[in-house]
Amino acid sequence: MSAFDDLLAYQHETAALAQIAGRLSWDQETVMPRGAAVQRGMEMAAIESVLHARRSAPQVGDWLAAAVAPDATGAAHLREIRRAYERANKVPGALARQIARVTSEAQGKWAAARAGENVAAFLPVLSEVIALKREEGAALAAGGDVYDAMLQDFEPGMTGAEIAAIFDAMRPKLVELRAAVLGGAAAPALSGTFDEARQMELAHRLAQAFGYDMTRGRLDKAVHPFSSGSGSDVRITTRTSATDPFNCFYSTIHEVGHAAYEQAVNPAFALSALGQGVSMGVHESQSRIYENQLGRGRAFTGWLYAQMRETFGDFGIADADTFYWAVNRVHDGFIRTEADEVQYNLHIMLRFDLERALMSGDLQVQDLEAAWNDRFASDFGFAVDRPSNGCLQDVHWSVGLFGYFPTYALGNVYAGCLNQAMRTALPDLDGDLARGDTSAATGWLRENVQQFGGLYESREVIQRASGMAPNEAPLLQYLDAKFGQLYDL
């Protein structure tokens, strides 16, 4: 075998072990007994030690030096393996193991602190996580910007300054739209209770309606919905609330967007460096376009209204048009994952600015809650009422995912570009969606984005699919048109 073949065979085993590590994380968030947290931390540290050793092994460097790519796909394999190899060799193995152990334990401490509304109980372990991630970031940056180095794990090629420029262009227009909408008529809201077992039944129907292959996946419940895995084992979770079925349904559709991306990657790339989504921004573009441009559109909500009437009977919404308004209701709220399309990105901008400040040292951990609450009041016009609605609401920082948050808003930007191109290519799409048939849309996304996995860099994926460089204009135009019509602006 050639050096290239040897390298790919080795990478195949490394990717398989990484999937096992991911399964441990899935188990931790779904069915693991609470008393197993410390042991699970040791297990995660052990497998991370093996993965780090494989990724940084000298023989990988030897193979990379000798390997000759047979074609453009082979060159992409080498690009991604080299990126992982160089990263692994910048981070000491002992540090990688310590991060895996501490973040595994921190996740449980965050959950307990969130349940108890006790920020003080979480801050010591958060301080430890931040110190470790700063150390990791400094090693990766090699004298450069620590936060930029962290971003490369989620959106390779992007910098904090570039993201800040996009957000600065979006923020005033979003604030203006938010004020105009909230100054108008109030949209209707659901009332009453909705059986949670029936919510899960309809969530399964929604997952399948959006093309999720249940023979290669499963739907479970978790505190924080997520998608896990790739290839032939891609699992999703959702959550239920007796008074808010939209939380369940749109969390499910969102996670199906992630999962459908992973299930659609070219099978030839399975368990390879190209066998998963290229970046979290592109990943989020899929979940957001499934959830919002498709799932919250007028056509599909008409079908969902009929499904809800069939499942729950008369639930107080008179017709499909009123239901569409209720689905897209803009209202004050604390929770990022429950935010409407107008305000969602403002939640992300808050987190982006705070985590950059934490990493740079401009914001101290003990001042985080106050900084969050001050910024929230400034951006949204009302005060945080309790920590679970404030700085304890998200799991990300507890598990060390600094640099992840901005990819949510980047995903919305990318989705705006993709939606514009998809609507041009599929002028009759709404007729299909009104029947609950998403196959034309999901097929277009599979053909133009999902099948490529990591073959192309993220910006190239969006540009190839949409015919334009990623930019915020299509998203802002879409939001203005949709909510201007809904709220008669």
Describe this structure in words.
This protein is mainly α and 489 residues long. It has two domains: 142 residues, no CATH class; 327 residues, Neurolysin, domain 3 (Orthogonal Bundle). It is 64% helix and 3% strand. The protein contains 20 helices and three strands. The protein has a three-stranded mixed beta sheet. A hairpin with a 2-residue loop joins strand 2 and strand 3. Helix 9 packs parallel to helix 10 and helix 14 packs antiparallel against helix 15. The radius of gyration is 22 Å and the shape is globular. It starts with a helix and ends with a helix.
Can you summarize this structure?
The protein is mainly alpha-helical. It contains 20 helices and 3 strands. The chain is globular.
Total number of helical segments?
Answer: 20
* Overall structural domain count: 2
Which class of secondary structure composition applies to the elements? Answer: mainly alpha
Amount of helix = 55-70%
Secondary-structure element pattern, one letter each: HHHHHHHHHEEEHHHHHHHHHHH
The shape is: globular
- CATH architecture level-2 label of the largest domain: Orthogonal Bundle
CATH topology of the largest domain: Neurolysin, domain 3
Largest sheet: 3 strands, mixed
CATH class of the largest domain: Mainly Alpha
- Going across the biggest sheet, name each strand in turn: 1-3-2
Radius of gyration: 22 Å
Mean pLDDT: 95
Instruction: Compute the separation of the termini in Å.
Output: 66 Å
Number of strands: 3
Strand content: under 5%
Low-confidence stretches: none
